[in-house]
Amino acid sequence: MDPDIALFVDVVRAGSLAGGARAWTLSPAMVSKRIARLEARLGVRLLHRTTRRLAMTEAGATFHDEVAPLIAGLRAAEARLAHAGDEPAGPLRVTAPTSFGRLWIAPYLPAYLDRYPAVRLDLDLSDDQVDLFDRRVDLAIRITAGPPPGLGQYRLADNHRVLCASPAYIARHGMPETLDELASHRLIAANGQLPWRLAGRTITGESWIKTNSSDAVRELVLAGAGIGLRSLWDISGALADGRLLRILPPHQGSVAVGIWALYAPQGAPAAVPALIAHLAEHWRDLDWKG
Predict the structure, then answer these.
(1) pLDDT at site 226
(2) Which of 81, 111, 142 is the last residue of a domain?
(3) Cβ(105)–Cβ(58) below 8 Å
(4) Which pLDDT score, from 0 to 100, does residue 79 have?
(5) Contacts of 192 (CB under 8 A, 6+ apart)
(6) Contact by Cβ (8 Å): 153, 260
C-alpha cells in the first residue's frame, strides 16, 4: 500500500489537512509536504489548498475515485490477515439500514453462524446513523458516498439507484421525457433523502407524502403515489416483473454512493473481518448494476 496515496485518501475523507494529520498523528505541515510529494510524482495537482478549505482538482477527484476503493480493500485484506489465526467468537454487534438489512444481511447470517457457532450475534436494523463507539457497535453497514473519518472501512458493493414509478402512475400523469419535467411530478422520498443527487445533476423538491421510512417510500411508489429514486437491490424484482418502470433510464444516482462496512480501526474482533468476507462472497454475483 502506497502510504502517500493512503494519506491522500484519508485527507479527502477528513475534509482537511488537519483532519488527515490527526488520523495519521502527523503535523499538518508534514501532511502537506507528503501530498506535494505525491503530486510531484504523478505530475498533476490533486488538491486546491487554502487556509479556509480544501477541494480536489478534477484530476484529483478522478484519481480519488479510482484509488479509494483499492485502499479500502487493502486495509480490509490486512485486517482479515491479521485475524487469520483467530477463530471468530464472542459477541458481535452489527447495525444496518432497515430495508437493506432485512433483504440482504439477515438471510445470509444463518450460514455465517453455522460456520462460526461461537459468535453471539446482535443485529440492530435502523435508518439512524448511530455512533459506533457510543453504541458499542462492532460493524456498521452503511449506504453512503462519504464514510466518516476515523473508522476502518471496506466498500462491499456499488449502490446503483434509478428513477422509477408504477405503470398506474405513468398512466395518470404521463412519462417525463426530461429531468426538468420532474418538477411537475409527484416525488416520493423519505425525510432527508431530497434533493436527489444524480450523476451530473441535482433534483430539488419536496416529497408529495412525508415519511421517515424508506420501506414506506418503496410501497408508496409501488402503489402509484409518485416517482422515487430507489436502489436496484430494493426494486430489481419489481422492475423485472413490470410492477415498476424505469424513468429517464440514462440518468442514475451518483456512482459515488456505495455499500460500506465500517468498523473500529483498531481492536476489531475477528468476527468482524469474517462477516465482511462472508457478505462480500455472497454478494459478489448479485446484479445490482444499472
Answers:
(1) 97
(2) 81
(3) no
(4) 61
(5) none
(6) yes
